[in-house]
Fold these 2 entries.
Entry 1:
Amino acid sequence: MSTFFVYILFSSKINKFYIGYSQNPEKRLEFHNSTLNKIWSKRGQPRGLKTSISFESNSKALKTGRIIKNLER
């Protein structure tokens, strides 16, 4: 059975959080901070992993991610 994660990153450089979804949050963090990522989060590099929450289903992870993103507004 696969595990899905909602992860929260923080950039002290721009003082912002980023909420994402992945089956491998550590690998996503590497991508967010890599030179390959030139579009979405380059200006917020470096980002650090604040937390990740695991879920047994894809749908629960996506729903929770949306709820957290809406709290941010």
Entry 2:
Amino acid sequence: MIQELLAYFNPLDYLGIWLFTAFILAFFVSWSTFPAIFKVSEAKQLMDEPSSRSVHASRTPNLGGIGIFFSLVVVITTFGGLLDTKILLLLLGGMTVLFFLGLKDDLLILSPKKKFIGQLLAALVLIIFTDTRIMGFFGIFGITILPYWFSVIFTLFVYILIINAYNLIDGVDGLAGSLALFACAAFSYVFFKTEDASMITIAVATIGSLLPFLRLNFSKKNKIFMGDTGSMIIGFLVAFFVVRFISEAQVVRTSTFYKSAPVLAVAIVFFPLLDTLRIFFIRLIIHKTSPFKADRNHLHHCYLNLGFTHVHTTLVVVVINILIFILALLIKDIDIHLQLLIVLCVGSFLYGSIFIYCGLFKIKTNSKMPEHVR
């Protein structure tokens, strides 16, 4: 009898209860995991040591990504049997690869080359075996359908770009986690509109896993960082949501977002992409150094130099990104080229005051830490 009920069960018929359960489960597992992470970190001295470019002055546990990962594992293994099992298992496999790479980097330091290879492997397996890829540009630049090989390469590029974008912005309390929270909320909305039960379940579960982490990440007493473990996992998930959303919108011509999916995806990850492209330009063109060489030229560092607190920095960045997404939703039915132009111009304008103040070609490389920074 149970098997018959499960065979005909459709999460979309009970979506409210289904998503609430997934959220609560992820939240509970994440919440329950952090006390153990604190104890192990303190007992084994697994702490992030402050450096010359750090925005904190005390030794802090940096294994917050473990709690996020475990909560998502529990949700996927518990709910996955009634969803798109193949995609979720491959997604879990990719997350596991990045989990161990990130964990090793947080504990022992891993070379950028090895991290890059691991990211490629995790993304490539998901692309090849699920055929979830960006198949075209929706007429942007006059390109509709891409050759298969180029589609795979471009999708890989999107994965690598977004994974590393979230890794690079993880420099201020709550910033990477809050932007990931917003991204998951935005994708929950668009996947709800497209009735993609598997993706909306994972997006809502990710929100549940991030909330306990953010409470601690913003805390002054029991602070914890997500580390590379967490930033790579959430970057990978957001990248997958981007690719899945664009891919499904392109396949289903009757989709609500058929004419706007790429622009909406860009709007959702606008700040991480903007900061990453900016920092690569500064490092490669201005300073002529490795794009992976750490410095204090990120936009969040510019906010701190202006005297903003960590909370104010995160709040301003996230609110602006939300406004960009809302704008993209409002103009989703006009010509896609005009959509893209408006989003890029307005988004750049909203963040432009930071560029103007710091001076794009007069970047401060040895600025002193603001007094409020711990």
